Structure formats: C-alpha cells, structure tokens
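Predict structure. Input: Glutaredoxin-like protein DUF836, 94 residues.
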Amino acid sequence: MFGRARRTSAPAAATEVTPRITLIGKPGCHLCDDARVVIERVAADTGVGWRELDILTDPELMSRYAEQIPVTLVDGRQHDFWRVDETRLRAALA
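Output follows.
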C-alpha cells in the first residue's frame, strides 16, 4: 500500500488530520517491512496517523533518501533511517 495514507482506528475527526508519522520505503525492502511493524504498533498505541510513501514513484524522494531507506519522518522532519527505535519514536510523539 505504498503512497496511500494509513490510519489507526481513531475517531473519524482525528483521521482528517495530517499523519504525524511518514515511512519512506519501497516494495520488497525487508528493513521497510521491519520498520512498518514498529510504526503500526506505535501509531495504534498512541492514536496518531501514519502514511507510507514509495521512493520508487517519487524522484525527489529517491534523490534525497536513496541510500537511507527506510526513512521515518515525524511531523515532517527526519527522525530515523534504516531502523526504527520504538522507544525513541514514542518519545518523539509524546
């Protein structure tokens, strides 16, 4: 589901807000799969929205992050790359 916003089961009003977490990756990337699991868990626990973008469909993302995927952004700013530290991600969202 690259390029499509994913949301937690928050109330409808909360799903209209821009997702706080963005995962930038690509299909077939095992580190992206690992990062997705952590992000899904943290997003569900904290009630924040998240989305996933495919680096292969966006030349700007490819140029900027090609050697770092998966990349995690929090509130639009780079937070992590290669691995997602769950404790650190939770702290950034607090």
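Residues 3-16 have pLDDT under 50 and may be disordered.
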